[in-house]
Amino acid sequence: MNENKNAVRKTVYMDEELARRCEILFGEAGAKSFSDFVSKALELYIDKLITGAHGRLLTEELSQAIRDEVRPIASRLSKGLYRYAVMLDMLCQIIAYQDTEWSPDDIELLRRFANVRVAKTRGKIDLQSLLNDNWFENEKENDTEDNL
Questions:
Q1: Is residue 93 within 8 Å of residue 136, measured between CB atoms?
Q2: pLDDT of amino acid 76
Q3: What is the pLDDT of residue 70?
Q4: What does the buried/exposed string (b/e) look like for 115-124 if buried means 16 or more CB atoms within 10 Å of the residue's CB?
Q5: Contact, 31 vs 37, CB < 8 A?
Q6: From the CB of residue 93, how many other CB atoms can be counted at a distance below 10 Å?
Q7: Helix/strand/coil (H, E, C) string of the chain?
Q8: How far is 82 from 124, CA to CA, in rounded Å?
Q9: Residues near 139 by beta carbon (within 8 Å), at least 6 away in sequence
């Protein structure tokens, strides 16, 4: 009959009002039995007592619910920040090569290079390395030579 093989039988006396409240909330708790309901209630109360002594602040159920809600938001934010990093890298390159005439094809090439650089550097953009590198100019010359 016991759900847990290590279960110990204890007799508990409680107020009639408390017993009635337990019966009302028994279904909402998702408990399989009254013993399961009391065990869940005691676990939550113990967690609350431990929290006062630097223990776990949130129950596992609440922590999981928060993670489930935050996961899609974090994913959308991450994708948006990646796109912003690519645009920022492009702007840094445009500033670094401000004397360059930019055609639509050059901008598209610049976007592709920025995308690769952001992926490799995980979003860290170093303007000095862009100035020292001349990567865009070299790739533009190679691309021009390939078209000839």
A1: yes
A2: 85
A3: 87
A4: bebbeeeeee
A5: yes
A6: 25
A7: CCCCCCCCCCCCCCCHHHHHHHHHHCCCCCCCCHHHHHHHHHHHHHHHHHHCCCCCCCCHHHHHHHHHHHHHHHHHHHHHHHHHHHHHHHHHHHHHCCCCCCCHHHHHHHHHHHHHHHHHHCCCCCHHHHHHHCHHHHHHHHHHHHHC
A8: 11
A9: 109, 113
Please give the single-letter amino acid code of residue 16.
Answer: E
Length of the chain (residues): 148
User: Running along the chain, 148 residues long, what does each successive block of 10 average in pLDDT?
Assistant: 69 86 81 84 81 63 85 85 83 76 83 82 63 59 60
Amino acid at 65: A
Amino acid at 11: T
Q: Which residue has the tokens 């000839």?
A: 148
Question: Which candidate, 104, 126, 106, 105, places its Cα nearest to that of 117?
Answer: 126
